[in-house]
Automatic annotation (TrEMBL):
This is TetR family transcriptional regulator. One of its GO terms (biological process) is negative regulation of DNA-templated transcription. Residues 26-86 form the HTH tetR-type domain. It comes from Pseudoduganella aquatica. Keywords: DNA-binding. GO terms for molecular function: DNA binding. PANTHER family: HTH-TYPE TRANSCRIPTIONAL REPRESSOR SCO4008, TRANSCRIPTIONAL REPRESSOR. Residues 49-68 bind DNA. InterPro entries: Homeodomain-like_sf, HTH-type_TetR-like_transc_reg, HTH_TetR, Tet_transcr_reg_TetR-rel_C_sf, Tscrpt_reg_YcdC_C. Pfam families: TetR_C_3, TetR_N.
Length: 223
């Protein structure tokens, strides 16, 4: 029987190259989105053009549009990335087996870490909401609402079991969102008030300690 060389099997030798192309494309698309998120945060959706993003990404407009045919497609990718990260952090709330205080502490820490590490992403998301979620409302409704209801169900079980004080879980989560996200969306104002060029890690740590203390005092079950 003659020896069969790998490169004689149709498609086999090309597989690694195809895989590399997929990896390279994914990386390039992510790099473009990383440039776009800052521009959308600084200039808004209407004030940002594909041509400007392409120039900032050091590529031609035609080349960029091969990966993202429209500005809305690129904007959607940016917001998808923000929401993916945000929802991953939200999933930690829906864990009724752990202590409520520890679950909420971890969630607050995760949300503040996102504000510190991804301020441009947070601002793009906030701007979309402030403008009425005209371009991304359906995605928010279909993805955030089910997870929020799941989290609220866990809170209600904790309340029924006497593990936390009776409270409106929906508005507690709203308040945690507002407090943590403000450290990204209003960081410039905070820095001005503190007479700094920008917030420091200590500022985020101090904010975290204060928010955690307030939330744990709110959920504390009567003794």
């Amino acid at each position: 029987m003659p020896e069969v060389k790998l490169n004689m099997v149709p498609g086999l030798a090309a597989a690694p190259k195809v895989k590399r192309r997929v990896i390279n494309r994914d990386k390039l698309e992510a790099d473009i989105a990383a440039v776009a998120v800052r521009m959308f945060a600084e200039c808004g959706y209407e004030g940002t053009s594909i041509a400007a993003i392409a120039e900032a990404a050091d590529m031609s407009k035609q080349n960029l549009m091969y990966y993202y045919p429209t500005k809305q497609a690129l904007y959607q990718r940016v917001l998808d990335d923000v929401l993916d990260d945000w929802l991953q952090r939200m999933e930690s709330l829906a864990d009724e087996e752990h202590e409520p205080g520890e679950v909420l502490r971890a969630y607050i820490q995760a949300k503040l870490r996102f504000s510190r590490e991804q301020p441009w992403a947070s601002k793009v998301y906030a701007m979309e909401i402030i403008s009425g979620a005209q371009l991304y409302g359906e995605q928010i409704k279909s993805r955030v609402v089910p997870l929020l209801r799941k989290d609220i169900d866990v809170f209600e079980k904790w309340i029924a079991a006497g593990r936390i004080a009776p409270l409106n879980a929906t508005h507690l989560i709203f308040m945690i969102w507002a407090m943590t996200q403000s450290y990204a969306d209003f960081s410039a104002q905070m820095a001005l008030v503190l007479d700094k060029k920008q917030l420091t890690r200590k500022d985020y740590d101090d904010g975290e300690a204060t928010i955690v203390r307030m939330v744990l005092a709110t959920i504390s079950a009567p003794g």
